[in-house]
Amino acid sequence: xxxxxxxxxxxxxxxxxxxxxxxxxxxxxxxxxxxxxxxxxxxxxxxxxxxxxxxxxxxxxxxxxxxxxxxxxxxxxxxxxxxxxxxxxxxxxxxxxxxxxxxxxxxxxxxxxxxxxxxxxxxxxxxxxxxxxxxxxxxxxxxxxxxxxxxxxxxxxxxxxxxxxxxxxxxxxxxxxxxxxxxxxxxxxxxxxxxxxxxxxxxxxxxxxxxxxxxxxxxxxxxxxxxxxxxxxxxxxxxx
Length: 240
Hints:
The protein is of the alpha/beta class and 240 residues long. It has two domains: 109 residues, 3-Layer(bba) Sandwich (FAD/NAD(P)-binding domain); 110 residues, FAD/NAD(P)-binding domain (3-Layer(bba) Sandwich), CATH 3.50.50. 25% of the residues lie in helices and 29% in strands. The two termini are 28 Å apart.
């Protein structure tokens, strides 16, 4: 790997800023959450508009939750959130109607299925109070669950020739990522990735661990390169 180029990186928002030169690059640019096109969702994203019961379930336990179903995975999502509250409503917002087996499961768990689509988020005192449907009805709730598309922030990596892969869950494309080996090394020598740009399903603790692992591997790679350079330099100095 002695032919790895030195990389020059310049902040994208500061075109006149001096470039930073580095022998290795670790990219941790994360992802963009692409939400369903329903007015009001983005305003409360991450507080009362959620997607992951493992990340935010505790905060909304025992509250009324409305799942805006825009994906074939929406039934699965409604079942997951039912673990945290017995007041779950599934609003069909482009998602296919539940199959016979799914409908039985939802009914047995008390999850109401409401024809959509969703038109807007209802808000009272800057807090979510419900989901207004296209026909004017309002589904009361204190939290809204959506299925975002997780798109890797990978423009820099695409410029380097790295392909973007699709993240698939149960046969459904839920996002994109940049492929790498378990250490985060990509197919471009000297470039590593970590976090959600490499794994859109990773939580904070896993993303941090991936960054730590990549950092250690990069450090060892540089140590080996320096050792080889030192040997080469010593050999040149000893030559007559």
